Amino acid sequence: MRIIGTGSALPKKIVTNQMLSEFLDTSDEWITTRTGIKSRHVISDEKIEDLGVEAVTKALEMSGLGVKDIDLFIVSNVVSEQVTPGMSCVVAEKIGLSCPMFDINCACPGFVYALDMAEAYYKAGKVRNVLIACIEEPSRMPSWNDRSTCVLFGDGAGAVVLTEGDNIKGTKLNAQPDTDKLYMTRTLEPTPFVTKAETSIPLQMKGREVFRFAVEACTHGVKSLLDEVGIKKEDVSWFMVHQANKRIIDSIIDFMQVPAERFPINIQERGNSSSASCPILLDECNRKGMFKKGDIIVLSAFGAGLLSGAAVLEW
Ligand code: ACO
To answer: What is the position in ligand 1's atom list of the atom closest to the CA of 274?
Structure first.
């Protein structure tokens, strides 16, 4: 397939490190040096699905396609107020889309998983045009009394439209199931029969272990994918890596021995927006005119699960 449209949308509320230090025992200096984040956009009075609608509308406008042209709609979403029907149905209703659709919850690498699925449907001859949207509000997952997690996240939505083509050169997905490193739980409605204890636990993270996993999963995943498709790292124009933490990206650059200029980043002003981070970055770079026809772009993301994935495409 080939990407012919990108779009993104962010909540209007910008929260700076300074604002966090007014109610948390933290500082701009700590957050900046440990994460690279200076500010992030977080949900206030918006509904996250409306940001999804905005991102999707922009991507469709750029692609020149209309809702009737889309054969499959995949939404990546971890949490939202909506439990059922899925976020894909909520967004589709608002934009008048009625093709087959489904949600996936693959945490931060959701965009790469969705690309892999789109390509598989395309290769099976079932679709010509696919719409992917990553619609995420991770700021609603941690406790805002927990300074080690809540400072990391920002919300937003990113979308792409794909059509026929052989520009996706390869994808590689990986799983190392380990649900103790990064998780959140919610209670369900009680019934007269449930006797087990259930608790709502805000996002818990073993930061250092997640850090190590992220660096290893990205460097190994990207290397083995490039080897598989026969592309040298020197020939990659852009490495679009999940914006989780600037220090994770710096370590990846060190391990991979690739010039830092080829790793665009927006984490300073976006924070970690889960699976939306890659398509938001992709859209921002695209709208700045950074990509030239023929550029080789690597996407890589990692997160809860522990899941990770990489994709290589030609622009
Ligand atoms: N402000 C000030 N101090 C803090 C803060 C904060 N916001 N958060 C933690 N600290 C303190 C800790 O309490 C601890 O204090 P102590 O030594 O008195 O116990 C000290 O700072 C060091 O804490 P560590 O957790 O060891 O700090 P570390 O250097 O590992 O940095 C961080 C923490 C930034 C979370 C890092 O581990 C990390 O980036 N991990 C990757 C995880 C990640 O990016 N997750 C995102 C979600 S998952 C994903 O998208 C991959």
So the answer is: 50
- The domain in which residue 72 lies consists of 2-165
Identify whether residues 28 and 152 lie together within a single domain.
Answer: yes
Return the closest-CA partner of residue 279 out of 304, 253, 228, 313.
313
- Is there an atom of ligand 1 within 6 Å of 241 CB? no
Residue that finishes a domain, picked among 165, 180, 198: 165
Provide mean pLDDT across the span 242-270.
Answer: 97
- Confidence (pLDDT) at 183: 97
* Enclosing H/E stretch for 72: strand 72-76
Of the candidates 129, 167, 245, 272, the residue annotated as catalytic is 272
What average pLDDT does this structure show over 61-74?
98
| CA of 208, closest atom in ligand 1 | 37
106 is a catalytic site residue: no
Judgement on whether residues 184 and 285 belong to the same structural domain of the protein? yes
Task: Give me the CATH number covering residue 193.
Answer: 3.40.47.10
State the pLDDT at residue 51: 98
Closest ligand 1 atom to 26 CA: 1
The one-letter amino acid code at 212 reads R
- Going from the Cα of 148 to the center of ligand 1, the distance in angstroms, rounded, reads 5
Residue 242 appears among annotated catalytic residues: yes
- Cα-atom radius of gyration of the chain, to the nearest Å? 19
- The answer to whether the CB of 214 is under 6 A from ligand 1 is yes
Tokens at residue 314, please?
Answer: 């030609």
Task: Find out whether the beta carbon of 205 lies less than 6 Å from any atom of ligand 1.
Answer: yes
The pLDDT value given to residue 267: 98
Mean pLDDT computed over every residue of the chain: 97
Q: What tens digit of pLDDT does each residue of 176-197 get?
A: 999 999 999 999 999 999 999 9
- Specify the pTM: 0.96
How far apart are the C-alpha atoms of 205 and 298, rounded to whole Å?
27
Alpha-carbon torsion (97, 103, 104, 108), positive or negative: positive
